[in-house]
Amino acid sequence: MHKHDFRDEFHARLLDPKRKSIEDPEKFIPELLSGNEVVVDMGCGPGYYCPVLEKYSSKLYCVDIDEKALSLAKGRATKDSTVFLNEPATNTSIPSGVVDVVVFSNSFHDMDRESTYKETIRLLKPCGKVIIVDWKKEPTPMGPPLEVRMSRQDYSTIFKDFEIVKEFEPGPYHFGLVMKRKC
After folding, report:
1. How far apart are CA 27 and CA 16, in angstroms?
2. How do 99-105 and 83-85 pair as beta strands?
3. Is residue 29 part of a domain?
4. DSSP letters spanning 104-171
């Protein structure tokens, strides 16, 4: 008998093509990346952002602690240069100071914030950027519980060595930030 795994339903929801109607990375990622950057998709899950990030980066690292999600992300990859790491966001094997951009799409709120922040600093080049796409801290028809959501101000407080250089609207239920490390 096949054991039911709730993650299968969760991953299927994250990869549902209908998601594009509320959050389509193809609409905002191209203007946020130059195409020749080393990018980390931190907490990539089943790889919803992976095909778009691959297209607009020179090298992509997809990092997630969920092995099953990571195998789905691998199936969505199109470039040999994409690296998949089954590791925590707090301690990756990515070399120090080689990353131009770290992307957190609907993931940072579920991570150990202080340790993940320190790891982000370790990975980034001196003037590196962080792109945040996260749920608005208000009731929405879907998304994580309100108490785990983070506001723009929460991100500004945690990412204290960064300045917000751009705000954007990824969709009706999300907000987006581009933060550049002060250098």
Report:
1. 17
2. unpaired
3. no
4. EES-GGGS-HHHHHHHHHHHEEEEEEEEEEEE-SS--SSSS-GGG---HHHHHHHSTTEEEEEEEEEE
Residue 23 belongs to some domain of the structure = no
CA 133 – CA 108 distance, rounded (Å): 9
Q: What is the pLDDT of residues 81-116, one digit of tens each?
A: 999 999 999 999 999 999 999 999 999 999 999 999
Residue 176 has pLDDT above 90, yes or no: yes
| Pair of tokens at residue 4 | 């039911």
12 within a domain of the structure (yes/no) = no
User: Which residues have C-beta within 8 Å of that of residue 163, sequence separation ≥ 6?
Assistant: 179, 180, 182
What domain range includes position 68? Answer: 37-181
Report the pLDDT value the prediction gives residue 2, as an integer from 0 to 100: 47
Report pLDDT for 18: 81
Does 132 score more than 60 pLDDT?
A: yes
Positive or negative torsion for Cα 125, 127, 133, 134? positive
pTM for this prediction:
0.92
Q: pLDDT-derived band of residue 20, with 50, 70 and 90 as boundaries?
A: confident
Structure letter (DSSP) for residue 7: H
27 contacts: CB under 8 Å, gap ≥ 6: 170
Q: Tell me how far apart the alpha carbons of residues 130 and 120 are, in angstroms, rounded to a whole number.
A: 8
Count up the domains in the chain and report the number.
1
DSSP bridge partners of 70 = none
